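Figure 3 (text version): structure tokens given as input.
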């Protein structure tokens, strides 16, 4: 466990700008208005990494920009500690202007809070919580009706690429709609025959 795994996350970055900054934080906690900071600032300075917009892309953290996870116990990596998450992936859809000013109530970001677990002698990222910030409003994404915490072990002969991608209502169509905080709406796009 002496080396840092590269953070990889599938994204659907559909921002109006040509690139979407992605910032990786290690052992971070949430501050005011969707900001995050590391509880170990000397460990690594978070760097915004430009990421081109588009659907179904994979983000690979540049080599040398991570943290040597060998300094931490598996217990520290695999559990949240109060408000501190071992891994935070912060993708902005509307970055600040060139002077660094963020227009009031215009933050648009998807934040993935995760832990790092060891399975079959490999470190893997497990998403614990997802947050959307839009125009100053925070939305916590949650499963509504469905298949919560399903894993490969729960579904024999399951294809890893297809796990959790289907609608939790009809179980055949792909998910394509965010869930509202009222928890009353879940929509699936079905094409006409």
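Below: residues designed for each position.
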């Amino acid at each position: 466990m002496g080396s840092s795994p590269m953070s990889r996350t599938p994204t659907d970055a559909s921002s109006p700008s040509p690139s979407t900054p992605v910032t990786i934080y290690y052992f971070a906690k949430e501050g005011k208005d969707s900001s995050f900071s590391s509880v170990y600032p000397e460990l690594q300075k978070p760097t915004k990494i430009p990421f081109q917009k588009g659907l179904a892309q994979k983000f690979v953290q540049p080599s040398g920009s991570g943290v040597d996870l060998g300094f931490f116990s598996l217990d520290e990596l695999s559990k949240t500690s109060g408000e501190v998450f071992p891994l935070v992936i912060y993708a902005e859809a509307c970055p600040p202007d060139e002077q660094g000013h963020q227009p009031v109530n215009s933050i648009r970001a998807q934040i993935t809070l995760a832990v790092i677990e060891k399975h079959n002698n490999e470190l893997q990222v497990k998403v614990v919580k997802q947050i959307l910030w839009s125009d100053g409003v925070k939305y916590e994404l949650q499963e509504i009706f469905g298949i919560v915490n399903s894993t490969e072990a729960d579904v024999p002969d399951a294809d890893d690429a297809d796990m959790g991608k289907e609608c939790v209502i009809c179980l055949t169509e792909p998910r394509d709609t965010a869930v509202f905080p009222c928890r009353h709406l879940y929509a699936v796009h079905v094409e006409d025959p």
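The CA atoms of residues 135 and 142 lie 20 Å apart.
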